[in-house]
Design brief:
By secondary structure, the protein is mostly helical. It has one domain. The protein is built from 7 helices and no strands. The longest helix is centred in the C-terminal third of the chain and has 27 residues. It is globular and about 45 Å long.
């Protein structure tokens, strides 16, 4: 297995792209990044829906540049330690999620499932779109898929 270049966590761009260091986990950095996203979600979930969606949009838009810049700095298109895209994808998953820890756990599991599985067209876009948008698009779509399933579950179970 090829050794990946490490981020410069003193560089604020790398620090953010690597999820405040959560992406530096030696195993399953995407899962650790999503766990960090859960911690960030908890205070964000207190916002009114409009502001939550606005914040999620800002995270996604900033992420395109942030992830692209970090990938370029490291010379690695989609370094597994770049987990800002997991933040954005999880935040998309949790749009209008009902309150309660069980919904947070369900959102986490659904997002990880779709992020790892990459059903159509996620896998195609992941392979064909480059730069920061390419890093972000698969996680944003995984978030949309997870959002749909979470909302269907809410309507079915409540």
């Amino acid at each position: 297995m090829r050794k990946l270049p490490p981020p410069d966590l003193k560089n604020p761009v790398h620090f953010l792209a690597f999820g405040f260091g959560s992406g530096c986990a030696p195993v399953a950095p995407g899962t650790w990044g999503t766990l960090m996203a859960v911690l960030l979600y908890l205070p964000l979930s207190l916002l009114p829906l409009f502001f939550y969606v606005l914040a999620t949009g800002v995270v996604a838009a900033v992420g395109i540049w942030l992830c692209g810049r970090t990938a370029a700095d490291l010379g690695e298109h989609d370094h597994p330690g770049i987990v800002w895209d997991e933040f954005a994808g999880f935040f998309v998953t949790m749009i209008a999620a009902p309150p309660g820890w069980q919904w947070v756990v369900a959102g986490f599991l659904l997002f990880r499932l779709f992020d790892i599985w990459k059903p159509w067209p996620i896998r195609v876009l992941d392979r064909r779109v480059g730069g920061g948008l390419g890093i972000m698009v698969d996680d944003l779509l995984a978030g949309v898929y997870a959002l749909i399933v979470l909302q269907l579950a809410q309507r079915t179970l409540t």
